[in-house]
Design a protein that fits this description.
The protein is mostly helical and 294 residues long. The chain has 2 domains: 1-40 and 158-294, no CATH class; 48-153, Alpha Horseshoe (Serine Threonine Protein Phosphatase 5, Tetratricopeptide repeat). The chain has 11 helices and 2 strands; from the N terminus they run αββαααααααααα. The chain has a two-stranded antiparallel ribbon with strand order 1-2. A hairpin with a 5-residue loop joins strand 1 and strand 2 (34-38). Helix 5 packs antiparallel against helix 6 and helix 9 runs antiparallel to helix 10 (222-234). It is elongated and about 100 Å long.
């Protein structure tokens, strides 16, 4: 009985670790090739520690009053934005702009505040100024912020917010020779910042996720693409083309998962057969010994 339990345990462990190993996973490229990788991170919502932010803001205000430091006062304003105290934050940055004009941080944060309180025109003016003062801010991704504000103001005649075109086929194509790695980094950067403040549903964030998925299809793994498409759907973005691509990529993954599943099942079946065969052999040997002793 002990031997039987031992073999059952071995069989269970083989099955468990084959099915649930979470350190490395296979990922699928658009051409169907599979590769074992460390699983990448997924964009997560940033959870604010309100109590901590409150204490930090109070400390910054106290230090500002002691030192009259514009930098400390600006940081105090930033904490107010995170605390969603937009009116107070607006007063802080207007005061800073009056005392020390043309600071990048002031322009950028005023743009953010005006967008959050629903004044995209003022937001656009301040974000434009911030980009003029520091073109490389936010990893050079603020052009996306400008595009979003222009979209809110119905400026231009664009088919999409970012005016990107990956074709109309079930597989995205880089028909305009975009720098895909740069685009990937820029969209990730802007998404991370927006998820600090914006909850579903928000079609702008949804479209950013959709474009992220299109780029991932050309640079990364289809499993990551499907995560982005699902997030796009979660935030309220809908597109027949996205659904076509989602279906195609799911089929590619399923098709290439099938042989692996069959191979795994075959291996486990062989292991189970060998275990059962060995158990039966031992039982038969034991029975023969008992018969011989009689």
């Amino acid at each position: 009985m002990k031997n039987l339990n031992k073999y059952v345990l071995i069989f269970f462990l083989v099955t468990f670790y084959s099915a649930y190993s979470c350190i490395n996973e296979y990922r699928t490229k658009l051409n169907g090739n599979r590769r074992l990788i460390n699983v990448g991170y997924e964009l997560a919502k940033f959870k604010m520690d309100t109590l901590k932010l409150r204490k930090e803001s109070e400390n910054l205000l106290k230090r500002y009053k002691e030192t009259d430091s514009i930098e400390l006062y600006s940081d105090y304003g930033a904490k107010l934005i995170y605390l969603k105290e937009y009116s107070k934050a607006l007063q802080v940055y207007e005061k800073i702009e009056k005392a020390t004009p043309n600071l990048y941080t002031t322009a950028s944060n005023l743009g953010t505040i005006y967008e959050l309180i629903g004044k995209p025109e003022k937001a656009l003016n301040w974000i434009k100024k911030s980009v003029e003062l520091n073109p490389n801010s936010h990893g050079g991704s603020e052009w996306i912020h400008l595009k979003i504000l222009e979209h809110k103001l119905n400026i231009g005649n664009h088919s999409s917010i970012l005016d990107l075109d990956f074709g109309n086929e079930p597989e995205p194509k880089n028909i305009n020779n975009y720098d895909l790695e740069k685009l990937l980094n820029h969209i990730n950067h802007q998404l991370y910042e927006r998820l600090n403040f914006i909850k579903p549903q928000n079609k702008i964030v949804g479209e950013l996720y959709y474009e992220l998925g299109n780029i991932q299809a050309l640079t990364s793994y289809l499993e990551d693409v499907l995560v982005s498409y699902r997030n796009a759907d979660k935030f309220g973005y809908q597109s027949d083309l996205m659904e076509q691509r989602k279906s195609k990529f799911e089929r590619i993954i399923k098709y290439h998962d099938l042989p692996e599943a069959i191979a795994l099942l075959a291996i486990l079946s062989i292991i189970a057969f060998l275990i059962v065969k060995r158990i039966r052999k031992k039982r038969k040997t034991k029975a023969n010994r008992v018969d011989g002793s009689d």
